[in-house]
Amino acid sequence: MVLRIFGMSLVVTVISLVVAVLYGGPTALALAAILGILEVSLSFDNAVINATVLERMSAFWQRIFLTIGVLIAVFGMRLVFPLAIVWITAGLNPVEAFDLALNPPPGDALTFPDGSPSYEKLLTDAHPQIAAFGGMFLALLFLNFIFEERDITWLSWLERPLAKAGKLDMLSVVVAGTGLILTAEYLADEAHRSTVLVAGLLGMITYIAVDGLGSMFHTEEHTEGGPSELVKATGKAGFFLFLYLEVLDASFSFDGVIGAFAITSDPIIIALGLGLIGAMFVRSITVYLVRKGTLAEYVYLEHGAHWAIGALAAILLVSIGVHVNELITGMIGVAFIGAAFITSLVRNGRADEKEPDSEREATPVG
Description:
Helix content: over 70%
Shape: globular
Oligomer: single chain
């Protein structure tokens, strides 16, 4: 099963590395490999969340997400999205933006000798808006999780009081909105304050709209007389869950795309590393989690992933005013997921120890 699930990702990785060598030699090979590892480390929590949503989708919509969705993730978010930002912010047409990306200033400077900005500078200058949108979308995802009462809690000393507080209607929106105002006031500079507020509000609106539409069409009720209405409802629910996953992937990819420019500004290498290598492995990890039932076996993984999302949302907002090293961003997600996995193992071990005792008590003597 492992080879079948990860086989395509391995093939794509080999092809991508070969293309990188042909494109830019050993340096391009090393950069593409580093970017692939960066993307996987940053997006492991994304794979866990994807798996939790994917389990609720029909087989048809799972295939759609794992095929068309991956194409959108690879080419849309890792290649077209950065170029689109440059088109919009610099007023260039797509051909000019792509040419600008392929021909950076000498010495990888941020500006050309005539003072015009490079592709990297144009994209970096748009970081406050990108971080505000992605940060608020992820913040609402995290807050809605921790403010909901659950039978199983991970950080019980914290999650249970937060769940009780979550009985206050729309508390997640209140907290997220307050965080956005504080970010715009104290972290954004004067030139970006209004755009940060607008982008953050758009992130919140996007989450509320997509999540709300998915919930509205989600049903578990079976009706007599054929599955027609159920199929229609499932189809609509699957479509909106698909949209939700695409926006979620976009929000996760922001930090990876921006962070990639600390390594290289070449869009081809970024597409090979982040898109083909990284995104394909994230897809394979998602499929593995669903097929193996890992989330049901290791019950704290979902909690760890959401706490990692909360940390990522905070980092995105903080990065509007303070540079945050990409290594910190990646390691926080890995740390939460790793801790959740270990504590899940401990929980499962304790359950296995108790099971024989209960069986002995239930067995009649004599």
